[in-house]
Design goal:
- By secondary structure, the protein is mainly α.
- Helices cover 46% and strands 9% of the residues.
- The chain has 8 helices and 4 strands, in the order ααββααβαβααα.
- The N terminus is likely disordered.
Length: 214
């Protein structure tokens, strides 16, 4: 996909493509499939836990505050992929391709998207959905809103494990990519449907099985 900065929307009127019934169905399906995923993938959880414990340089799970549905904060869960001193100066820092802060096990988990598995618990709890905008930290949200206040529309959706922006915008390691991601997420909001969600989930699975980096 070819996205240009000139496509950025500012203060435009945006409507949710899903009605109340569709949103309720989406929430129910997210809860059911998250529970199934936690059960089916439990052996993978155990294997990753053993690998990270064997690495022995910090906690297995990584918890970080993100801003989600209706602007409410929640703690996202991931398998830890970076050194425990990855932000030792206390300043939020974006992850980037080939990040030197990754541990050996963490690099493998990141490349195969296994670090995201604990977020199935976030989906089951209702903090997140399978499809939706990636949840961001308040620090970066404030920077994005200075460029485009339309970010507030993101709060109409639960953040997701995957999205069109996740698949096609690559690592969000610059303000330009953050603004492109915002535009893609706003377009998803206006166009979203249960059919589109299924398409995005299936595309994500295919990309992972093919080893595509995104």
């Amino acid at each position: 996909m070819n996205w240009k900065m000139s496509q950025m929307s500012v203060n435009m009127e945006i409507c949710d493509g899903m009605n109340l019934v569709e949103r309720a169905i989406k929430k129910g399906l997210d809860t059911i499939f998250a529970l199934l995923g936690l059960g089916i993938l439990s052996p993978v959880f155990l294997l990753v836990y053993i690998l990270l414990k064997k690495q022995g340089d910090g906690p297995v799970l990584f918890r970080q505050e993100r801003i989600g549905y209706k602007g409410k904060p929640f703690y996202i869960l991931k398998f830890r992929t970076m050194r425990i001193d990855s932000e030792k100066d206390g300043k939020p820092c974006l992850a980037k391709k080939g990040d030197e802060r990754l541990t050996p096990v963490g690099k493998f988990l990141r490349e195969h998207h296994l670090d995201e598995l604990p977020q199935l618990w976030n989906v089951f709890r209702g903090d997140m959905a399978f499809v939706g905008p990636r949840p961001e930290r308040r620090y970066f949200i404030d920077l994005i809103r200075k460029e485009n206040p339309d970010y507030d529309y993101i709060y109409l959706m639960r953040p997701g494990l995957t999205s069109m922006a996740t698949l096609y915008n690559g690592y969000t390691d610059s303000m330009q990519k953050m603004l492109i991601r915002l535009q893609m997420d706003l377009e998803y909001l206006q166009q979203r449907s249960l059919f589109l969600d299924v398409k995005i989930v299936l595309t994500t699975i295919v990309f992972i099985l093919k080893g595509k980096k995104f």
